[in-house]
Design brief:
With 106 residues, this protein is of the alpha+beta class. The protein contains four helices and three strands, in the order ααβααββ. The chain has helices at 4-26, 28-37, 52-58, 61-70; strands spanning 42-46, 75-82, 89-97. A three-stranded antiparallel β-sheet has the order 1-3-2. Strand 2 (75-82) and strand 3 (89-97) form a beta hairpin.
């Protein structure tokens, strides 16, 4: 008989291993620094730039939570876009924001 708790633990272990590889490959800290040097206050991680397997992991709340843990002083959240033909919203990616004050651009 299958042990559900063991299955959950194996799934979490697989996710953690995948996330570590993804984090090292992405070099997000370097991308954030470069975007900041170019005057940006945010960076989008767009799902369509990744294969289907990566997208499957990235669409989970656990991914968002883990990313927030890696970037504790930044705002991390899902980003939605609107389909111009159907007017419906869809999950587009993840937005990372480090803007300190909204009054910077008056």
């Amino acid at each position: 008989m299958l042990d559900v708790e063991k299955l959950r633990q194996e799934r979490e272990k697989a996710f953690d291993a995948w996330f570590e590889k993804w984090w090292k490959k992405e070099c997000l800290e370097k991308k954030i620094k470069k975007a900041n040097q170019n005057g940006f206050t945010g960076l989008d991680v767009v799902f369509s730039n990744y294969n289907i397997e990566e997208q499957r992991w990235m669409r989970k709340r656990k991914f968002l939570s883990k990313l927030q843990d890696m970037l504790p002083d930044l705002d991390v959240d899902f980003k939605y876009a609107k389909n111009i033909f159907t007017n419906s919203r869809f999950l587009y990616g993840i937005t990372i924001n480090w803007e300190i004050s909204k009054s910077e651009d008056l």
